[in-house]
Specification:
Blueprint (H helix, E strand, L loop, with lengths): L7 E5 L3 H12 L3 E6 L12 E4 L5 H9 L3 E4 L6 H8 L8 H8 L1 H10 L7 E4 L2 H11 L3 E5 L9 E4 L5 H7 L5 E5 L5 E9 L5 E3 L3 E6 L2 E7 L5 H18 L3 E10 L2 E8 L9 H4 L4 H10 L11 E8 L6 H5 L4 E5 L10 E9 L3
Parallel strand pairs: 1-2, 1-4, 2-3
Antiparallel strand pairs: 5-8, 6-7, 6-8, 9-10, 9-11, 9-13, 11-12, 12-15, 13-14, 15-17, 16-17
Helix pairs in contact: 1-10, 3-4, 4-5
């Protein structure tokens, strides 16, 4: 199926990723309808239509589905039940099955392991007994994480010694958890890639990422890694995309250990570490996602410059004025009304062209 210009794309989620997806869709002649529980969401400003309703509201979901030609999502915490409900009425990409795996850290790690990919050592932690057993097997230091709904460092506690286990479990307030061993890595990198239903696959250049307070602060493309590491990261991302039967843009975050890559997380969506592609690639990650879900040929993902992406987070958003004065820097602000600590308000991309 190839959607023609004039078709309507439904997007579950109204944050900055939905906003940038809608802008990319409009450039290709599509209309967008945003479905989001939060009034005044950033994506509403750039879409033809929007619905404000809960993801559990089946009547609203059914009405939304009746008005669109395909449905996608901008973030991974859309309830799987909502996506399955919509999928019974209109095509959905990525699939609910892919989302279900990527939403759950235990399922995600198990999936990667079955593909033969390296991960941190891990253990399911349904209770205190399992946590003690996991620590005995994996050792410390380790990290206890909620299996679901964790991002930007939320829902995780370091365990430096076995005596800290009970407090760590209490800090997660009974949420199903996974224990992960520490990985001694030299770099964190990611591969953002797009895949179509027919298996066509186009990766962007491997990107090196730096975090501050568990939030992505800076991404640089290309990553300073060996060609062998680059090839392994892209091959692992392709194996994950094929294994999920994924349709759309997705990201895989890796730890680099020597020349090897260790899978950290799978993101079933466009990704913060791929924002550099808006200005630094022939086809950006958002356009690739729209092309993939619409059945269009994928664009050329080639990088056109050395790129540095800087997140504008919380009070750091005030940097936009100085950055805007740089002649080869592009500013992207997300239209959020309130600045809060840790809230992503925008980003900037610095471009350095070959001489």
């Amino acid at each position: 199926m190839m959607l023609k210009p004039g078709a309507t794309i439904g997007i579950l989620g109204g944050g900055q990723l939905g906003r940038m997806l809608a802008i990319a869709a409009a450039r290709l002649g599509f209309h967008c309808h945003i479905y989001c529980p939060e009034a005044g969401s950033p994506a509403f400003e750039v879409a033809r239509a929007h619905t404000v309703a809960a993801y559990e509201d089946e009547a609203a979901l059914a009405e939304f589905a009746s008005q669109v030609d395909v449905v996608t999502l901008e973030f991974e915490n859309v309830p799987v039940a909502a996506l399955r409900f919509v999928a019974s009425r209109v095509p959905v990409a990525p699939s609910a099955d892919a989302l279900e795996i990527a939403q759950d850290r235990l399922a995600e790690k198990t999936f990667a392991t079955k593909l033969g990919l390296g991960t941190a050592p891990f253990a399911d932690v349904p209770d205190a007994v399992a946590l003690e057993a996991g620590i005995a097997r994996i050792g410390t230091p380790a990290i206890l994480k909620t299996r679901r709904f964790g991002y930007d460092g939320k829902g995780q506690v370091k365990i430096m010694a076995s005596g800290e286990a009970s407090q760590a479990l209490a800090d997660l307030r009974g949420a199903p958890a996974i224990l992960e061993g520490f990985v001694r890595f030299s770099r964190e990198v990611s591969v953002v890639a797009a895949r179509k239903a027919d298996g066509a696959f186009e990766p962007f250049d491997v990107t090196e990422n730096e975090h501050r307070n568990h939030i992505l602060d800076r991404s640089v493309a290309p990553a300073q890694v060996s060609q062998a590491t680059r090839d392994k990261a892209i091959a692992a991302a392709r194996a994950i995309g094929d294994g999920l039967g994924y349709v759309g843009t997705f990201a895989v975050e890796f730890f680099v250990v020597g020349d090897e890559v260790i899978v950290n997380e799978i993101a079933p969506r466009v990704h913060n570490s791929g924002h550099w592609t808006l200005d630094g690639a022939i086809t950006c990650q958002f356009e690739q996602h729209i092309r993939a879900i619409a059945g269009w040929p994928l664009g050329n993902p080639a990088r056109i410059a050395h790129v540095e992406m800087l997140n504008l987070v919380g009070e750091g958003t005030a940097r936009w004025e100085a950055l805007a004065a740089e002649p080869s820097t592009k500013i992207h602000l997300y239209g959020k009304a309130e600045i809060r600590a840790g809230r992503k308000m925008g980003h900037a991309t610095r471009l350095r062209f070959p001489t």
